[in-house]
Design goal:
Radius of gyration: 21 Å
CATH class of one domain: Mainly Alpha
Distance between the termini: 38 Å
Order of helices and strands: HHHHHHHHHH
Shape: elongated
CATH topology of one domain: Serine Threonine Protein Phosphatase 5, Tetratricopeptide repeat
Number of strands: 0
CATH architecture of one domain: Alpha Horseshoe
Oligomer: single chain
Length: 190
C-alpha cells in the first residue's frame, strides 16, 4: 500500500494541501487517528479528491477500522476501477474482517488486472482455505511458489491446506467405518 503524496490539483486551496500533507506526515509516523482526521478534512473540503479517500482508507486499515477502509476504497474503485492496488487493499480489509467471499472476489479482480501479483494469489489462497475450498487454495499457493519459491509462509500455507484437505478425507473414511482413518484423524487433530 502506498500513500499518495505530492501536490494535488486543489485550484490553489492551501488549506486542502496543508491537510493532505499533514495526513501523509501523520500516516508515515504511524499516527493513524490523526492521519484520518487530516484526510477527513481534505475530503470534506474537496469531496471529489480521490487520493484523499484512498489515503484515508489506508489509515483506517492500519488503525484496524476495516469497514471504514472498505467504504473509502469502494469510493475510489468507483472512479479508478482499473487499478489493481485499490482492489488489493480492499481485499486485504475484507480478509482481515473475515469476509472471505468478498476478499476472493476482489483478489480475482486484482489478478485479472495483474496476473503477476504473488501476494494476491497467496492471500486469495488464504481466503479460499478459510471457506473450505482447499483445491483452489492449493492451486493459488502453487502459482505463488512458481513465482517466488523462497518464502516459507507460502509453503506453510500450502501445507496447512493439504492437511485440512486430508482431514476431510480421513473424516469421510472414518464415518464409513475405517478405524485407520479415525486413528489418522485423531493424530492430525492434536
Amino acid at each position: 500500500c502506498m500513500v499518495f503524496a505530492g501536490h494535488a490539483a486543489f485550484a490553489g486551496d492551501l488549506d486542502i494541501q496543508h491537510y493532505f500533507d499533514e495526513g501523509n506526515t501523520y500516516f508515515n509516523d504511524g499516527q493513524y487517528a490523526k492521519a484520518i482526521e487530516s484526510y477527513s478534512r481534505v475530503v470534506a473540503l474537496y469531496p471529489d479528491f480521490i487520493q484523499g479517500y484512498y489515503n484515508r482508507g489506508l489509515a483506517y486499515y492500519k488503525a484496524g477500522k476495516y469497514d471504514e477502509a472498505i467504504a473509502d476504497y469502494s469510493r475510489v474503485v468507483s472512479t479508478a476501477s482499473g487499478n489493481a492496488d485499490i482492489y488489493n487493499n480492499r481485499a486485504l480489509a475484507y480478509l482481515k474482517k473475515g469476509d472471505y467471499e468478498h476478499a476472493i472476489s476482489d483478489y480475482t479482480k486484482v489478478l485479472a488486472l495483474n496476473a503477476r501479483f504473488p501476494d494476491a494469489y497467496h492471500n486469495r489462497g488464504i481466503a479460499y482455505a478459510n471457506v473450505g475450498k482447499f483445491d483452489e487454495a492449493i492451486e493459488d499457493y502453487n502459482r505463488v511458489i512458481a513465482m517466488k519459491s523462497k518464502d516459507p509462509n507460502i509453503f506453510l500455507s500450502r501445507g496447512v491446506a493439504f492437511t485440512k484437505k486430508a482431514m476431510e478425507d480421513f473424516r469421510r473414511a472414518c464415518d464409513m467405518g475405517s478405524q485407520l482413518a479415525c486413528d489418522n484423524l485423531k493424530q492430525l487433530s492434536r
